[in-house]
Design brief:
Radius of gyration: 14 Å
Organism: Brassica carinata
Domain DC-UbP/UBTD2 N-terminal: 6-103
Strand order of the largest sheet: 2-3-4
Distance between the termini: 54 Å
Pfam families: UBD (PF16455)
Protein name: DC-UbP/UBTD2 N-terminal domain-containing protein
């Protein structure tokens, strides 16, 4: 029997280690997605996770379901593919921190 499908949601509000601008956040995300596939797992799963992270929640659910991703946490911070490979996503790719600052 398959485990219950988790309803995806954005992570709970969180704070970055220091206040961060939108541009810095986008750079962090870009660097993560560029390097993530090198940590193992399948490129198509990483691509699906990125698409889900950048989509709104209802679409994210469909993307994850169709890619066969198994979410351990419903904020997608820990997922597995059907082969059991683990994918860890930092909160900053899923949502913005509460201490996001405006560019000056």
């Amino acid at each position: 029997m398959k485990g219950a499908v988790k309803k995806i949601r954005k992570p709970k509000p969180w704070k970055h280690t220091q206040p961060i601008t939108k541009a810095e956040l986008m750079k962090l995300r870009e660097e993560f997605w560029d390097t993530a596939p090198h940590y193992g797992g399948r490129k198509e799963i990483w691509d699906a996770l990125r698409a889900a992270a950048e989509a709104d929640i209802s679409l994210a659910q469909a993307i994850v379901d169709s890619a066969g991703v198994i979410a351990q946490n419903n904020d997608l911070t820990i997922c597995y593919d059907e082969r059991g490979a683990k994918y860890e996503l930092p909160k900053y790719v899923m949502s913005e921190p509460t201490n996001l600052v405006e560019e000056s």
